[in-house]
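FAQ

Q: What does a record look like?
A: Structure on top, sequence underneath. For example:
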């Protein structure tokens, strides 16, 4: 049983999460975040903590950003886009139970302070910007680190706000190289 309450977008996501883990889930029902839903999330946040697990797409990221602003000490879990995709549909409801468990095993808290440990030069040197393969490489490194995919600017922000260490960075780069050469 996961102690924290998982916050997901829809009922289908909640059903898929229930297949993967034993946990309580609150459904946002989209970006609007009705006052009653915010009150439920706040109560869970204050009593047990929450894990934000939204879809790895634009709307999911907007919901995550809004929730992170409301609940700054929330934990974040990311299912990689390729693990949450069926045809053209991207969402947690498409993820395997294993992918959901793996994401929940890599939860992170988003620090409000920018650690400043990583720079755009680090991304460029690692091939995560400036090449046609950069997006795919960021996705692989983001999956290894448990911080999800993002464009270069967003990815750099996540590196510096999710407390990634240089050792974790090196390990993730190595794992991503092995995955892309397999």
């Amino acid at each position: 049983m996961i102690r924290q309450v998982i916050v997901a977008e829809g009922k289908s996501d909640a059903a898929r999460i229930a297949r993967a883990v034993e946990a309580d889930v609150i459904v946002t029902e989209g970006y609007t975040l009705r006052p009653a839903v915010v009150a439920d999330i706040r109560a869970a946040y204050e009593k047990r903590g929450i894990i934000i697990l939204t879809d790895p797409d634009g709307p999911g990221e907007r919901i995550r950003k809004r929730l992170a602003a409301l609940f700054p000490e929330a934990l974040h879990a990311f299912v990689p886009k390729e693990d949450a995709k069926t045809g053209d549909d991207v969402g947690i409801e498409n993820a395997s139970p294993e992918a959901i468990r793996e994401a929940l095993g890599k939860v992170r808290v988003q620090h409000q302070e920018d650690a400043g440990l990583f720079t755009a030069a680090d991304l460029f040197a690692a091939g995560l910007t400036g090449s046609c393969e950069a997006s795919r490489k960021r996705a692989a490194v983001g999956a290894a680190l448990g911080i999800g995919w993002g464009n270069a600017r967003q990815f750099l922000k996540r590196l510096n706000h999710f407390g990634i260490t240089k050792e974790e960075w090196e390990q993730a780069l190595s794992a991503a190289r092995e995955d892309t050469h397999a």
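Q: Is there anything notable about this one?
A: The CA atoms of residues 17 and 114 lie 31 Å apart.
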